[in-house]
Amino acid sequence: MNKRIFLGLGSVGAVLAIGGAALVSGVGLTQRSEVVYMTDGPTFKDVTDLTKASKAVAHVRILSAGPTFTIPFDRASAVVSARPSGNPDKDKEGQLNSSAPGGAAPTGLLKTDFTVEVLDNIHGAGLKKGDHIVVSQLGGSVATTRPDGVSTNVVEANTEHDPLMQVGDEELLFLNQDAGSARFFTTGGGIGRFKVQSNGTLLAVDHDSAIAKTVNGKPTTFLKTAVQNVN
Amino acid sequence: MLIREGFALRGRSLVIAGLMVLATAAAPLAASAHFLGGKWSYGGGVLLPLSYVNNTGGFPAYTNAVSSAASNWYSTPTPSDLYSVSSGGNITLSTFSDSGQSYWGVTQIWANNTTCIWFICWTNNQEIPYGSHATPASLPSGWSNYTSSAISFNRYTMDGLSAFMKLKVATHELGHAQGLGHPDISPFCTAIMQQGFLSFNTPQPHDKYDFDLLYPGYWSYGYSC
């Protein structure tokens, strides 16, 4: 009996010791957090609308992801405006203050460049099979690294309806080009992305878009033909 | 005659039964979507006061859109009460310029996340996780109420928008900052939380219904599409 108690207490002590050591050293305690960017932007009612808003449409394979970088916010000054009024029920409550303390604000948004290989140029001039182009996407992954090289905080940011591309995947992309950097980006974020599944059918990345309902489950030729029929 | 009356009665019953089925089918839809997960601390009173820092000085079109958007929400029969401060606000609004994306506005929200392994717990201030939006307060256990939010407007894509649309985007993003998501609604329904160009730029009945569902208490807006 005493031996069992001794062994039990010993086990608890060992676990605490290992856990405490891990806490102190950071080994095995990488903090991972996922981030979502909620957005607003243009939407497109059908394939014709989306094609006309795009510079190019291409079937691509995602080859690699570059390092995540930050698009900085403008360093603009704060402007204080008058408190809203005109709702009688609310006005008579007076001007209450928030019970939640203010938080630290971010300094920018994360973006990542993906290198993709053009497997088929479906629409638009300038791209040809075998080209490698860079497609920029909102979101990315950043890690805080200690001097000894251990990652202690990994943040992965995805945009709602437009998650980060995965290396090795094939997608049909509706593209526009940033005149300044010459990098491409997808038209309407996730609306302009269609994943080519292993059985050759399409799955809209933005599953809530109007186009998703007409394209999901169809072969890639369906969308390619629809795009090529747009004048 | 009797047969005709019988058919008329049966027809009315079928219509009523059909409406009941529709109402039953629509109610869970209304209650199961349209939220980001989590919310701000709210005691159930008339007001949910939240301060915002409007860092859009130098860009008056955005400054005006933000203050008008706050008024838009204030005028609704919801607890929304957004007011402007010079620093240390719950919500921070900024601008940036990026020609390499098509988005107009982006919102982020943070909350505290406490993780425990046995009785060792630690808390981090994190952004709410991807794909968590479902029912009100549906964040996994360990998450606190919201602690802060940040909104940013892309001047490159928004400068060309009309003042009407700038106000739409600002009202939409402030809806996110208060916990509302993109609603999956029928084509016959309208909501400011829909993405894209809209013919209105103020919260719609559906938005008010969702808001009061997320923050139940003094206000209660009837179900609307």
In words, what does this structure look like?
Chain A has 231 residues and is α+β, with helices and mostly antiparallel strands. Chain A has one domain (30-72, 106-228): Beta Barrel (OB fold (Dihydrolipoamide Acetyltransferase, E2P)). Helices cover 20% and strands 36% of the residues of chain A. Chain A is built from 5 helices and 10 strands. The longest helix of chain A has 24 residues, at 2-25. Chain B is of the alpha/beta class and 225 residues long. In chain B, 33% of the residues lie in helices and 23% in strands. Chain B contains 5 helices and 6 strands, in the order H-E-H-E-E-E-E-E-H-H-H. Chain B has a 6-stranded mixed β-sheet with strand order 2-1-3-6-4-5. Mean pLDDT of chain B is 84; it is low at 1-9 and 14-33.
Index terms:
heterodimer, A: 231 residues, alpha+beta, OB fold (Dihydrolipoamide Acetyltransferase, E2P), seven-stranded antiparallel beta sheet, three-stranded mixed beta sheet, 5 helices, 10 strands, extended, B: 225 residues, alpha/beta, Collagenase (Catalytic Domain), six-stranded mixed beta sheet, 6 strands, 23% strand, globular, disordered N terminus
Compact summary:
With 231 residues, chain A is an alpha+beta fold.
List the helices and strands and how they pair.
The complex is a heterodimer of chains A (231) and B (225).
Chain A: H1 2-25, E1 31-40, H2 47-52, E2 56-72, H3 88-91, E3 108-123, E4 132-138, E5 140-145, E6 151-159, E7 170-177, E8 184-186, E9 193-196, E10 202-204, H4 212-215, H5 220-228
Parallel strand pairs in A: 1-6
Antiparallel strand pairs in A: 2-3, 2-7, 3-4, 5-6, 7-8, 7-9, 9-10
Chain B: H1 2-32, E1 48-54, H2 60-74, E2 80-85, E3 91-96, E4 105-117, E5 120-127, E6 143-154, H3 155-158, H4 163-177, H5 205-214
Parallel strand pairs in B: 1-2, 1-3, 3-6
Antiparallel strand pairs in B: 4-5, 4-6
